[in-house]
Amino acid sequence: MIKKFYGIATILLVGLQPTVKAQFDSTISLSGGLNALRIAVPFLTIAPDSRSAALGDAGVASVPDVNSQHWNPAKFPFIEGKKWGMGFSYTPWLRNLVNDINLTHLTGYYQFDKMQSISGSLLYFSMGEITFRDNNNNYIQAFNPNEFAIDFAYSRKFSDHIAGAMAFRYIRSDLTGNFTTTGTGSGKPGTSFAADLAVYYQNAINLAGKSGEMAIGGNISNIGTKLSYNEDPQKEFIPINLRVGGRLSLNIDQYNGFSYLLDLNKLLVPTPPVYNSQDEIVSGMDPNVSVVQGMIQSFYDAPGGFKEEMQEIYIATGVEYWYARQFAIRAGYFHESQNKGNRKYITLGAGLRYNVFNIDFSYLIPTGGFNSPMANTLRFSISFEFEPARTRTNRNK
After folding, report:
1. Quick check: 89 pLDDT over 80?
2. What is the pTM of this model?
């Protein structure tokens, strides 16, 4: 599908992450209404896999699996009975709006032993094709804007119940293909280097005579350099995100099991202040600060005070049911404040596990109705996880 360049901004605004409005329009309401956060590369915030997407985008403390790299790489050492695995996920994005935007995710891990693992992933976001035209609407060139992130992580258990991880990430965003226009200068790909710090705890429990497991996780992701698409010294924050959450799993009997998950998320980037007609800050704090300062002041810089800070926390929750550890049904809900993006949607999904093979899918239903560009979003994931050779040999004897 052919779109003009400004179509990219619209697509990112209405579908990818509504809180990126200020990336393209820095006008801030003086009435205490919409005050969206300002970030670049919002594709990093999209749930890449079907399992967590079906759980309302909750995953920081979900049962460890091959897709833990995005949610919490500290979970990898807790994958039991497997030596290594790899997974692939595909999301046709915003199909209610356009037909050529896609998100692809490839991930894998390897356990050295019961204490430590390495892992990596590639996240690729393709925005289809756009055309560049001059002020007289004459054709100049066509280009396929794209963004990707590649990362590697090392995770290690500190005890039988707790583990930590560190990930390093390279991010590249090319929206213009070095297109040059009079007055705005030359565009260029934006690049950034980032890191994640993650921790995960799990322990067996017994509740009402039923065996189960409790887990808590935390992950600060995308702690990295700011990004720019031109020579402008004013750069944009990438989506540095604090995610904390928990999980409660119960085995009803030998065939039936349930898990409940809850994640809380907050972007650790400055909140846009309120300006007067002379571009002077009348409420809030200066957002043009270093990465570290921006992370710190993100907890207290909102013009609306504590109430607005609380609006910047978005909630993801989900329930997962397993039958015989082979068939899963999932449901979830995601909530974001009306003043910070207003994403609210229900998610559904299912999964099938057979031997080393897993397949999952999810479906998104916006609570605002099916006119939303995100309506009818489907995700598909497949993965393979393999046991150590010694385990397979012993089992076949």
Report:
1. yes
2. 0.89
